[in-house]
Amino acid sequence: MKNTEKNKPTKKKILMYYLILAACLLVIAGITAGVIFAVRNNGITNPPSIDEGNKPSNPDDGNNDNKDPDDNDHVDTSTQYEFIVPVKDVNLSQAHIFGYDKTLDRYRLHEGMDFKCAEGTEVLAAVDGTVKSVSVRDELYGAVITIEHADNVTTVYKFINPVENLKAGDKVSRGDVIGKVAKATGVENADGDHLHFEVLKNNVMQDPDDYLDIISK
Questions:
Q1: 115 contact partners, CB below 8 Å, separation of at least 6
Q2: Residue 195 host element (H or E)
Q3: Hey, is 146 helix, strand or coil?
Q4: Using only C-alpha atoms, what is the Rg of the chain?
Q5: pTM score, whole prediction
Q6: Helices (H) and strands (E) in the chain — how many of each?
């Protein structure tokens, strides 16, 4: 056999060359993929440790963004909105209950509260508000003062003599004298001299004791 024929590559050798080449290409591809992955994730870092100077904000630390939007709808419970009894000496003679009406001689719901007191006793505004109306010619209730307050609450004072010059639109503060108890008359004449006091919310009659809290529950 000639030397040139001995040095010719056989099919087996050619196949080995291709296998080695393929293996090298796989290794190169793997290394390339690893490098690309490392470069892409180079910007991701672990979160910094939390210390005193880098603490997340507390939801309750006064951040307005975390406040309940319904907080703006709450009823004002400041001192100015706390009701006081509209007479200085509390002598409750009739509560907001269903009972016998001596004047009308029948059973009915007594709307409001009656405070027994002598004619001339000062009547006080139960809470800050604006006078809605002053009526001095009501045949059933004598003079009547109606005052509007926050949260759609209204107070009504009956069987009184309003202070001079009190009129609709006047601002009154809690404890201001708005009138004096008048002589018993009208639909509660048989009950003697007293102040009849009512509370309404959204024009619906309420039990005044829900605001005054003077009856033991």
A1: 85, 86, 87, 90, 91, 92, 93, 194, 195, 197
A2: strand 194-201
A3: strand
A4: 44
A5: 0.60
A6: 3, 12
Name the token pair of 199. 């509370």
Amino acid symbol at 102 = K
Kindly report, residue by residue over 3-38, the tens digit of the pLDDT. 444 555 566 666 676 677 777 777 676 676 665 655
The closest of 99, 102, 97, 94 to 187, measured between CA atoms, is 102
**Tens of pLDDT, residues 131-143:** 999 988 777 778 8
What whole-number distance in Å separates Cα of residue 209 and Cα of residue 214?
6
Q: What is the reported pLDDT for 20?
A: 78
pLDDT digits (tens, 9 = 90+) for 37-57: 554 555 444 444 444 444 444
Amino acid symbol at 56 = P
Q: What is the mean pLDDT of the chain?
A: 75
Non-local (6+) Cβ contacts of 39 within 8 A are none
